[in-house]
Specification:
Blueprint: E1 5-7, E2 10-14, H1 29-36, E3 50-52, E4 59-60, H2 62-83, H3 87-98, E5 106-109, H4 110-121, H5 138-145, H6 156-162, E6 177-178, H7 185-199, H8 217-224, H9 236-247
Length: about 250
């Protein structure tokens, strides 16, 4: 079942779908909560935000994941461990009961989540070991940690649970699209940075090389964006700047 939805022209993933993207290999609901609370143990997910599918696209605060959902998930885990008859039974009960605790109608942007997950689990920041205790090689990592946005979910009840809040009544049509706001946030970030560069008197494709010991153009532009709500998060500005560099919209003077 394809779990990707298109919101305002941008691909998004319901938070309830995240554990299923790797069949529970990398991110169970408690790991999702840690990532979205910007916990120090969730390395690589700094600045990742989840939004609610409403007219305002309101951000679910990191403090909600840390102070409201995380304790509830840990309490559930403790209760299951205290009464489980076997590890396998406890693991299955955890999966059945923890997934619904993730909120319905809440999503992350695919183009933000996917590279963070890849960096964490496939590029060395969260290296995994196999059953023998050896570090997984590249092929093993790909099998265990690659994201599948069309996971096999045969249970109709599970399908409904994962996509709850994204039904047609919520503004979702048969092509998994929601269209209310024409401008994607990434496009808005790109436009804001380019405009700020020009306002500062620079040509985006002939930026001066940084002088030793002095702040460069990037640092100056970052400072002008501190109050801009589309750059909330510690890594959001850096990702937008790098995106512009990769496209050639920003370049240093030859």
């Amino acid at each position: 079942m394809n779990v990707v939805v298109v919101i305002d022209g941008r691909e998004a993933v319901p938070v309830r779908a995240i554990p299923l993207l790797t069949n529970w290999e990398t991110m169970s609901p408690d790991r999702v909560a840690l990532a979205l609370s910007w916990d120090e143990d969730a390395i690589g997910f700094e600045g990742l935000q989840a939004l609610h599918l409403d007219a305002a696209r309101k951000v679910v605060p990191a403090t909600w994941w840390a102070n409201m959902l995380w304790p509830k998930l840990r309490a559930l885990s403790s209760e299951i461990k205290a009464h489980e008859v076997s590890i396998d039974a406890g693991r299955q009960l955890w999966r059945d009961k923890s997934l619904p605790l993730l909120p319905a109608g809440v999503f992350v942007w695919k183009d933000e989540f996917e590279p963070m997950h890849r960096s964490r689990y496939l590029l060395g920041r969260g290296r995994r070991v196999n059953k023998s205790g050896d570090a997984m090689d590249v092929d093993e990592l790909e099998r265990h940690a690659s994201l599948d946005f069309d996971p096999f979910i045969p249970d109709p009840e599970m399908q409904r649970l994962v996509m709850e809040g994204f039904e047609p009544s919520a503004g979702l049509n048969s092509h998994n699209k929601v269209s209310e706001k024409p401008l994607q946030r990434s496009a808005a970030q790109d436009a804001a940075i380019l405009a700020a560069i020009r306002d500062a008197g620079y040509d985006p494709v002939t930026l001066p090389v940084n002088e030793p010991g002095k702040p460069g153009v990037k640092a100056k532009i970052r400072k002008t964006m501190t109050a801009n709500t589309i750059f909330v998060g510690t890594k959001v500005f850096d990702r937008a700047w790098e995106r512009l560099r990769q496209r050639g919209d920003i370049a240093d003077r030859a």
